[in-house]
Amino acid sequence: MKRYLYIFFSFFLFASFMSNSLANSFSCNQTGYFFHDTANVSFINIDRQTNNSGLIPNSYDAVGFNTLDGYLYGVIDKKVVRIDNGFNADELDIVDLPEHDYTAGDVHNDNLYLYAKQEGIWRINLSTKQATQVLKKELAFYTLADLAIHPEGVVYAVDNSRNIHRFDLSQSLEDNKVELSQSTGLQGLRNFSGQFFDANGMLYIIDSKTGELYLFDDITPLNEQESFRYISLPSLTNVSSTIDIARCRDMTLAIKGYDFGDAPNSYGTSVSVNGAHHQVSSHLYLGSKPDEDLLAQLYPAFDDNNDSDDEQGITFATMSLNQGSTSFFTAKVGGFLTGYLSAWVDWNNNGNFNDPNENVLQNVSLLGGTHHLAIDVPSDASLTDQTWVRFRLNEDPNISYLGRGERGEVEDYPIAITSYDKQESYSWFPSQGSYATLAFEDRWPNEDDFDFNDVVLRYRVGHVQEATTGKLSQLNIDIELQAYGGEYNNGFAIKLDGVTSSSVDTENSYVVVNNAYQASIVEATDSPDDDAVLIVTDSLKQYFSSECDNGFLRVDPNCELDKNVTVKASMKIKFNEPVTYPKDLSPYLNPFIFASPNDNHGFLAPPSRSLEIHLKDFSPTIKANPNLFKSGNDDSGDASTNCGIQKSCDSYKNKSGIPFAILIPANWNNPVEGKSILSAYPDIKNYLNNNDSEHDTWFMHPDPLNVYSLTVE
């Protein structure tokens, strides 16, 4: 028996797996082990979206986790090996197993299944070390980077042509077959090298080219007409060059029909730690009826699975809780059952709700409607920019901050704790629970079709001010891509009129885009006194790869391939010291799009950051090219960088006074591709020409044939 043993180069792995004198089996937990072709391993906690990586003795393929003995089994150099928790491997002497390039594998019921293209599938009894061919070579013509075995013992695989297959291997070799093949509906070039089931029969598929993660939540092996529905989950990082994944299937990652919280997992959030979850029901909930999470989307991830914010049942009177004071809040209860509200606050900010006095409400009986409640803040509560509050509404009393509840909802909120003399007030545009809509035409300064769907964003801004001085201490900005009907690639940024770049606390300001944290968001300026510019991204198209014509997203009702694509960003801007509230600062700031690097935008050479498109009568940044104004179809008058807030400038409009960007103070259905806003919203004509107050609700009266419906089926 050969022993594959090499010196470890990674202290991390040494500390993690070689603390004992001899390596042992793995424990069954939520961790998945990604094996790379560079003799590296990534530890992926699918539920927590975290990973670490390091060198290992070798690179293994076609791996699976054997729940009977806790070891991984796989292939190296066409040989079957048993892998211990130090990632060392013992070669096994397998009877009747030919040497092939096995590219996919998994373990079920003490059997290792291996697939080789144009050769077949073999089942290896790990106790007897006997191999048996179970699928003949004539049926093994798929390019499989991995396969997965359902808890009922049925083999599934998604090939790199994006088709899913179910194999019936229960008969003799001659009778076994590919029982069912169907397109998944996924698009593009793929390498699905990570495929596995959890204990509830949920199939997870990971693309090592992009890190995209898909969940097939309705796998039914006994259904002859099985349909394969998938849900897109937050993407994973550090999965490039992956060749396979192994994890213990007995650990449940997702359950159907429940709502989870959003706090970090130390607070008891995910299934893996018996986190708080409730059965989703129209009978009882907080705010609006929550969506079904399937698995917890831990902070800073989003769990708005049906494009609506379901963490809005609790509203605090102030942005922060103040030491030694009484904090007031409202709880909005929906449904028709009596619910019992309980709440916990992490007063000492130690990452849990276990400490005395942290259960601040228990069994408050509430019927449907809005209720005004209060909690007392301890005078010794830890001062912090962010701790967590958990609210649970349950149909039965006496619930803990952990575990399964009945019908109801759990809502988690990050909140600051400030000293009594630094109380803060806050205001939102348009409101804390709703979004405005930004719509841009990206061919400025040239004429366009004015369908206002080139870039469409949902947008809201929270202003945090010191209650006593009125000074601005923080901005919270939420952004979501609604539609993209432009062929050009655009970035998105926000100018803070009257706020100097040097006043921004760059170390504690950040943006999270699709759950990826970015620290560098303040654009470098020539002078520290220049207005601050916040770069959300210099390429919106990098976050989606649409299969619709021209890469469009949610503008063509005849192409819904990518209807469920999600691009969300959450930005927090802190200041070194609270700043005097600038007189030039609009409630919705100064948002704009700009030309992405290497995109010509219709010019002979890429204009990049110098081409900016702002709302009408807003000022450009110092990086805007002044020569573009009054060119093409632009008829700007005063477009200087310091002309002030809206109505003080004379900018970004065409010769008919039509803007190139508009802000709608509500959710809004954008026009379909090729239909001008005049035909999609007939009432806008009088509003634009006459500023007629009778038509100031033009955006509420669309022509339904000319707008893209965002209604969730």
Q: How many β strands by DSSP?
A: 44
Question: What fraction strand?
Answer: 35-45%
Tell me, what's the shape? globular
Class computed from helices, strands and strand pairing: mainly beta
Q: Enumerate how many helices there are, as a single number.
A: 3
Mean pLDDT across the residues is 87
How many angstroms does the end-to-end distance come to? 58 Å
Instruction: Give the C-alpha Rg.
Output: 28 Å
Specify the helix fraction band: under 10%
Low-confidence stretches: 1-21, 304-309
The figure for the number of domains is 3
Overview of this protein structure:
- The protein has 713 residues and is mainly beta.
- The chain is 3% helix and 37% strand.
- It folds into 3 domains: 245 residues, Neuraminidase; 164 residues, Macroglobulin (MG2) domain (Immunoglobulin-like, Sandwich); 280 residues, no CATH class.
- The strands form 9 sheets. Strands 33, 34, 35, 36, 38, 39, 41 and 44 form an 8-stranded antiparallel sheet that branches.
- Strand 5 and strand 6 form a beta hairpin.
- The N terminus is likely disordered.
Please outline what is shown here:
The chain is mainly beta and 713 residues long.
Produce the secondary structure layout.
Layout: E1 3-4, H1 11-17, E2 31-36, E3 40-45, E4 50-55, E5 61-65, E6 72-76, E7 79-83, E8 89-91, E9 104-108, E10 111-116, E11 120-125, E12 130-135, E13 148-149, E14 155-158, E15 163-168, E16 177-183, E17 194-197, E18 203-206, E19 213-216, E20 230-233, E21 242-247, E22 258-260, E23 277-279, E24 284-286, E25 314-316, E26 320-322, E27 326-335, E28 339-345, E29 359-366, E30 369-376, E31 384-394, E32 404-418, E33 424-429, E34 436-440, E35 455-466, E36 472-483, E37 490-500, E38 510-513, E39 516-518, E40 531-537, E41 568-579, E42 590-595, E43 612-614, E44 661-664, H2 677-680, H3 684-690
Parallel strand pairs: 23-32, 26-32
Antiparallel strand pairs: 1-8, 2-3, 2-21, 3-4, 5-6, 6-7, 7-8, 9-10, 10-11, 11-12, 13-14, 14-15, 15-16, 17-18, 18-19, 19-20, 22-23, 24-27, 25-27, 27-30, 28-29, 28-31, 31-32, 33-35, 34-35, 34-44, 35-36, 36-41, 37-40, 37-42, 38-39, 38-41, 42-43
